[in-house]
Structure formats: C-alpha cells, structure tokens
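Reader question, answered in our methods column.
A reader sent in the components of a multi-part assembly and asked whether the whole thing could be modeled at once rather than chain by chain. We filled in our standard form and ran it. Here is what they sent:
COMPLEX SIZE: two components
ENTRIES:
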Amino acid sequence: MAEKTIQIEIKRQSGPDASSTWEKFEIPWKPGMNVISAMMEIAANPVNASGQETTPIAYDSNCLEEICGSCAMVINGKARMACSALVDKLEQPIRVQPLTKFPVVRDLAVDRSVLFENLKAVQAWVPVDGTYDLGSGPRVFPQQQEVAYPLSNCISCCCCMEVCPQFNDATGFVGAATIAQVKLFNSHPSGKVLKEERLRALAGDGGVQECGFAQNCVQACPKQLPLTEAISDITRDVTLQVAKDFLRA
Amino acid sequence: MATAARPDASQTSNPVGRGVEPLRAGKGNSFLLRKLHSLSGIVPIGAFLIEHLLSNFEALKGPLAYAEQVKFLNSLPLVRFLEVGLIFIPLAYHALYGVYIAMRGKANVIYYPWSGNWMYMMQRWTGYIAFVYIIQHVVRQRFMGVSLPEHPGAAFHKVQMELSNPWMLAVYVIAMIAVCWHFSYGIWLFAAKWGITPGANARRRFGYLCAVLGVVLAVMGLASIYAFVGPNYKNAPADVMPAQTMLYAPSSPGASLS
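And here is the structure of the entire assembly that came back:
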C-alpha cells in the first residue's frame, strides 16, 4: 500500500521586490499535522512535487498553540493561524499564501509593523515605568475584569486587518485590533490617564470613522475578541471627545 | 527564518516603509466629514425620504389627493430654502462623499462570504443605484417638464406619464427597493457606529426592527407606484386643479374668524 501523502501549494517570493510564484509539494502525511508542521516536513526534505530540489519555506511561527500570533497566513483563501489549521480538516491541495495586505519579506513571512506603529500611535500601554514605588495598584473589580480580559487576549496576528475591506492603501484604516486595545487601556484604572489622548489619536485620518462595519474582523479573530463591540464603544467615546474638545476650545 | 533584510523604512513618509499606512494620530478632518456623512443620511435625508414616501402614498387616494399633498408641501414657509438647505445640499454631500467612501473600500465577499460583509457590499451597491437614480429623478421630475410647485394639480399626470414607459417603471421599482434597503441598513449602521448598539444582541434585535422598517417603506413605495400604473386612475387629467396657482392662495370660509 502506498504511503499516504498530502498536497500543498505555497505562494513563494524570494524577497520583498521579487515576483511571486506558486510551488507544489507532496509530503508524507502524519497524524495531527498542521500547516506549520507540514512546512517543517518540507524543510526536512526540500523537494517539490515535480522532484526538483528547492529551498525551505520562510515563515513566521513560534508557539504552535495559537497564542503568539506569529503564523497568520491565508490558507485556502482565509486568513487564519497556520498552527491551528489542521491538515485533516483542510481541503486539498492546501493553498497557502502570505497575508495579502502586508509587505512580504520572504515567502510567507510578512512585515506587520503597521500594527506596532498603530499601537504606538494610540499609546496602547499603561504609563507606569517602575522608576519609583507607586504603592499597590488600584483595585479592579470583577465586573471590569470581565470586560478587560477578552480584550487582553489579542495576539496581534493581524487577521482582523487582513479580512477588513476598509483596511487598505486608500484608507490607511487603523484596524480593529488597535481600537480594541484602546478600549482595553482606557478601561484600565491606571491606563485611563491617557484616555483622552488615545481618543484624539483615533479621530485622526485612518481612525475609527473608517470602519464600514462589515464585521469580518469579529468573524476572523482567532481569539474571539469582541471587536465590533469595541469599535462601537470607542467610536462613541471618540465622538464625545471630539465634541467636548470643540466646545471647550 | 527571517534572514531577509527588512524593507528600508526611511525612504518614504510611511514609517512602515510600504504597505498600509499607519494611523495619522489626531491629524486631518476625515472624522468630521465621515460623521457628517453618517448623520446626514438620517437627518435630514432619511427624514425627507420618509416624508416623500408618505406623500407618495397619497397617490393611492387619487390624483386630487396627490395634488393636495403636493400643494401642501409647496405651501410650507420658506419652502425653497427648505428644499435647498435640507434636501439638495445634504443629499449632494451624502451622495458625493458616499461615492468617495465606497470607492476606497475593497469588498472581499468572494473570500469572506459572511452576512455582515454582504451587507457592507450591498450598502455600497444600493448607494450607487440611488446615486444614479436620484440624479435622473430630480432632473426629470423637478426641473424638466411642467413645474409642480406652480402647478401641483399636474403632479399625478406627470408621474403617470413617466411610469407609462415600462423601462422607467422597472428603474423606479429597482430604485425604490434599493433606496429603502440603503436607508434601513443605514439606520442600523448609524446605531452600531455611533455606539448606540454596541452589544451583539442589541445589534441583532435592532437589525430586525430596521428590516421591518425597510420592508414597510418599500411596500408603501411600491404601492404608490402601483397607484400610478394600476387600473384605478388610468389616464388622469393633465391638471386636476388648473385654476389654482401658488401665488394666490384661495381664501377659505371661516378664515376671518381668526
């Protein structure tokens, strides 16, 4: 009996400015395989389906348990985490390509620093630097924790941005992840000291107003963040902030 | 892994170097323009749409009732000011900025065929339909042919002539459905995007409400169209109140009591 194999097609690109091409692979099946482990098999024996020797696939990954956010890719047309994309549950040939809205570094590795820039632009942190003892932090009630915890689950994978029809070169939309982090840090008892600055930042070009409420973000989010709820809440807060600033000017 | 050099970010104004530009924190005025677009769709344009559909519904009572309604609207104080300030200008803004919004979005329903994504695309397509339809509707019904503000009695006949063309009738039916869809989903979007319905359940329930409103408005609109093309008022007279003009309102008995 012939050994069971899987068919996988990968969109490859040798560098940021190189042209892309699809390469087919046929690799031995193993129980419990996911897309990352399939690419590990390719790396162990870098030969494509037509028998030619090739290079191992370049990709980002780390934890392999859908918590680090590194391995977001477009798999069979859908943006998702490669580590939790189980081969047995995917239609073959499995077609894997890099996220389409982020500059390709090589093969499946993309540059997602736009999210980092966006998080910096809204100061998505608690401004405590630990240089002196502030005493114990303020009490966070369980009700507040219930709101904050789901938002803190964001793994910065950028799936919400990839699937968003408004996240593109024309709009420069900030994306759902950053808006959700604004809600998280604005609800934090120490983080809320920057609340007004974050809201004003989000009223800038590419801010919350660019959301078209297609709700793809909340469908695609691997960590089930309440993204549409966050966008709704934060847009209200931004609108009120803009109105207040106008009346106090 | 990650041996390739990162793109040089210093070459462009975009700090990421290439790809989607990051947030321009606190810069620009697109927030105000977008919120104005959103608000103008509800008030005054949405309010006008409801008025327009209610007025058209009078056509079901016949040419004279329809003429009375047209006459009433044109007798409102500062009516030409209202027409320009509350209809033409907001409508032009909503339409032009709406096209600008729609052209910058990149619909991806093929890859992500989810209901919200479908509605996102439908909102843009119904907007385009409304855009084209309303331009011809305003030009042909408001600015061409017999002027209805001066001759309200000619209103029924004018619309009936327009709808006697089966192609035009099809255009009106399609546009009626598209506009009612655009408005009712627009209300839903307004509530979601202004933070009135942040919760998923609240949005779902409000969605049912908006759907009912949209269906009611569309049915009312289609019924009005039927009044012009149906058997009840065939061959309406060219002017049902030829003696009256808006320049000299008829004195009514009892007016001297006030």
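What stands out: Chain B is about 60% helix and 0% strand. The CA atoms of residues 8 and 107 of chain B lie 30 Å apart.
Send us your own complexes using the same form.
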